[in-house]
């Protein structure tokens, strides 16, 4: 008897794939287009742009905690039909739904910028290639004959900076923005582009050749000497090679000079190119969200209203303090005060009940800590108490007694 064959699972529903874009200002990821996936990357008749604001999606959420359903709600479709636009001839805005930044230039830069078509990089790369050929042909007998690893390291030292460093223009932009707007945030003193150049030089010009042509021969000579000592070989059998030592010294002298020239020139060309790319692109992109405290406050309050479920009286919260923290974000403290109460003798109480809101974020306005505390604070110096039932001033109102006749 053969075991029963399991039936086939149902086919999954047909859905559209979405194109996501990460906001250049606040790093929010949002949808900019929908279409059926295809192998050619062209638009189909189902291509469309989603609407700017999606309806609320009910996913196991109810404002009244006592009415939350026990049965999980698996459906997550929007509450009403999404009206989309599928006209490919129109021109669209790409504003971040979180911070409102215009991401049209960022979409162009992230999808169509050709880093290695920079004129400075092309011209400098051609000069670097000519310099590399001159060094190889002029020093073949003294440096590269019988030393394949040295030849490979020199070629990589000339080529890798031209490929790796220009692609780090985004890291250079982040380094410059943090240095300018967030001096309290610790970061390396040198930009990532220069770190890459120094790392390539040390690895390709110093470390790899030193391991291959200095450390390994020294280890082999040491092992041979120990073997001779163990076997008690005659001292006359040891053959000294002073010419070989002199040849190694000449090799290292020429290698350090020529290798440094090639590597430094290639890195210099790459640094100039990445600086030109950064200068041209940075002026066309919005500044990060942490560059402007007022924008941060607006986004943080929007996030806090959702995170803390503050629906009513949100506009009556008085935000008393906003300051930068060590993470580059902001700390905010706000109070929602109850109306002051009257004492038994008719005076307004000096202490009022308040809800204290404390919010902390990182540099991208992502809330890292949020809490609400019930406490008492000093009654504010000014306030409109006309809505209170009772005396409108702090002076006790005299109570007149009914005269007896």
Account of the protein in words:
Mean pLDDT is 81; it is low at 55-61, 72-77 and 386-401. The protein has eight helices and six strands. It is an alpha+beta fold and 405 residues long. Strands 3-4-5-6 form a four-stranded antiparallel beta sheet. The protein has a two-stranded antiparallel ribbon with strand order 1-2. β3 (318-324) and β4 form a beta hairpin. The protein starts with 16 loop residues before the first strand and ends in a 27-residue tail after the last strand.
Strand-helix topology:
Elements: E1 17-22, E2 29-35, H1 104-112, H2 119-138, H3 140-144, H4 148-164, H5 169-181, H6 192-231, H7 242-282, H8 293-307, E3 318-324, E4 330-337, E5 351-361, E6 367-378
Antiparallel strand pairs: 1-2, 3-4, 4-5, 5-6
Can you tell me the residue ranges where pLDDT is under 50 for at least 5 consecutive residues?
Answer: 55-61, 72-77, 386-401
Oligomer: single chain
- Helix percent band: 25-40%
The fraction of residues in strands falls at 5-15%
Number of strands: 6
Cα-atom radius of gyration: 36 Å
State the shape: elongated
């Amino acid at each position: 008897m053969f075991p029963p064959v399991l039936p086939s699972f149902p086919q999954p529903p047909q859905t559209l794939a979405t194109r996501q874009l990460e906001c250049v200002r606040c790093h929010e990821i949002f949808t900019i287009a929908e279409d059926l996936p295809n192998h050619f990357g062209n638009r189909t008749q189902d291509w469309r742009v989603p609407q700017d604001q999606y309806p609320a999606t009910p996913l196991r959420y109810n404002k009244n905690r006592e009415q939350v359903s026990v049965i999980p709600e698996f459906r997550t479709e929007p509450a009403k039909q999404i009206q989309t636009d599928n006209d490919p001839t129109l021109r669209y805005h790409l504003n971040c739904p979180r911070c409102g930044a215009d991401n049209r230039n960022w979409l162009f830069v992230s999808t169509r910028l050709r880093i290695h078509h920079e004129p400075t990089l092309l011209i400098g790369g051609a000069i670097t290639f000519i310099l590399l050929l001159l060094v190889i042909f002029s020093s073949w007998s003294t440096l590269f004959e019988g030393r394949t690893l040295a030849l490979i390291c020199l070629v990589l030292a000339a080529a890798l900076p031209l490929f790796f460093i220009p692609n780090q223009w985004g890291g250079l932009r982040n380094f410059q923005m943090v240095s300018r707007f967030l001096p309290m945030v610790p970061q390396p003193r040198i930009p990532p582009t220069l770190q890459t150049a120094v790392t390539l030089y040390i690895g390709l010009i110093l470390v790899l050749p030193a391991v291959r042509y200095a450390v390994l021969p020294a280890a082999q000579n040491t092992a041979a000497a120990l073997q001779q000592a163990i076997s008690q070989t005659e001292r006359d059998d040891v053959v000294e090679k002073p010419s070989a030592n002199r040849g190694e010294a000449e090799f290292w002298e020429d290698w350090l000079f020529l290798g440094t020239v090639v590597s430094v020139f290639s890195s210099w060309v790459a640094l100039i190119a990445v600086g030109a790319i950064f200068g041209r692109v940075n002026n066309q992109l919005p500044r990060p969200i942490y560059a402007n405290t007022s924008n941060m406050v607006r986004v943080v309050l929007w996030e806090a209203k959702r995170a803390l479920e503050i629906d009513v009286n949100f506009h009556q919260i008085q935000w008393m303090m906003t300051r930068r923290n060590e993470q580059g974000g902001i700390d905010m403290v706000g109070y929602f005060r109850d109306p002051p109460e009257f004492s038994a003798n008719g005076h307004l109480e000096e202490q009022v009940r308040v809800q204290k809101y404390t919010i902390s974020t990182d540099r991208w306005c992502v809330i890292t800590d949020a809490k609400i505390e019930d406490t008492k604070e000093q009654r504010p110096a000014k306030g409109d108490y006309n809505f209170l039932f009772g005396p409108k001033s702090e002076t006790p109102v005299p109570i007149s007694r009914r005269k007896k006749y």
